[in-house]
Design a protein that fits this description.
The chain is an all-alpha fold and 210 residues long. Helices cover 72% and strands 0% of the residues.
Length: 210
C-alpha cells in the first residue's frame, strides 16, 4: 500500500502541472478570440474605405488574404486547445489513477458532455461565419475582376477565391479534429462516443473510441 507521506508530493506536482496546462488553455482561448476580433476590426475598416467610393472597391480583395491568415492562427490555437484538453482528460487522469487519487475531471465530465455536442458545432459555425462571409463579400464586390481584368486584380480575385475555400477547409478540418477529441473524452469517462462501432483500446477507461 502506498505511503500517504510519499504520495502527497507526487500529487502536488501533478496538480501544479495541471494548473499550468489549464492556464495555457485559457490563454490560448483568449488569443484565439483576439485573432477573430482583430480580423473583424481590420475587415470592417477595409470595407468602410473600400465601399466609400467605387474606385476603392479593389481594397476589399485584401480581405480574403487576411481571412486565410486569421483562419490558420485560429486553427493552430484550436488544435493546441484540443491537445491540452486531451492531456488533462487522459494522460493527467492516468497519473492521478496511478497514485490512487480520484478527482472529478471537467474535460471528460458528463456535465460538459451534454454541452459539447452542440457547443463544438456552434463555435465552428461562428468561426466560419466570421472568417468566410467577409471574404466572399470582398470577392462579390469585385466580381467583374473574375472575368474582365488582367494583372494585378484578376489574379488577386482568383487567389482570393482559392484562399476563401482554403479558409473553409481549414476550419472544417479543425472542427472534425476537435469533435474526434470530444469522443475520446467521453470514451475515457465510460460513455459511448457519438460515432458507433468503436473498439476498446489500452489506456482508456473501458469506453469505445470513435
Amino acid at each position: 500500500m502506498n505511503n500517504p507521506l510519499e504520495q502527497k508530493p507526487n500529487i502536488e506536482i501533478a496538480l501544479k502541472l495541471f494548473e499550468s496546462a489549464r492556464a495555457e488553455l485559457v490563454s490560448r482561448i483568449g488569443l484565439r478570440d483576439q485573432v477573430l476580433m482583430l480580423f473583424v476590426a481590420a475587415s470592417g475598416a477595409i470595407f468602410t474605405i473600400a465601399l466609400s467610393r467605387a474606385e476603392n472597391f479593389e481594397l476589399a480583395l485584401v480581405v480574403p488574404m487576411l481571412s486565410m491568415g486569421a483562419a490558420l492562427l485560429v486553427a493552430q490555437h484550436n488544435g493546441m486547445i484540443g491537445a491540452i484538453r486531451s492531456y488533462c482528460a487522459t494522460e493527467f487522469q492516468l497519473a492521478l489513477d496511478s497514485q490512487n487519487f480520484s478527482m472529478p475531471q471537467w474535460d471528460n465530465s458528463y456535465a460538459l458532455g451534454q454541452f459539447r455536442q452542440s457547443g463544438v458545432s456552434h463555435r465552428s459555425w461562428g468561426h466560419i461565419i466570421v472568417l468566410v462571409v467577409p471574404a466572399f463579400i470582398g470577392l462579390a464586390v469585385n466580381y467583374k475582376h473574375a472575368i474582365y481584368s488582367s494583372f494585378p486584380f484578376g489574379p488577386l480575385w482568383w487567389g482570393g477565391l482559392v484562399s476563401t475555400f482554403l479558409v473553409a477547409y481549414v476550419l472544417v478540418k479543425s472542427h472534425l479534429w476537435r469533435s474526434s477529441s470530444f469522443d475520446q473524452y467521453q470514451a475515457w469517462a465510460g460513455k459511448p462516443p457519438r460515432s458507433s462501432g468503436g473498439v476498446n483500446r489500452p489506456g482508456f477507461r473501458g469506453g469505445p473510441l470513435g
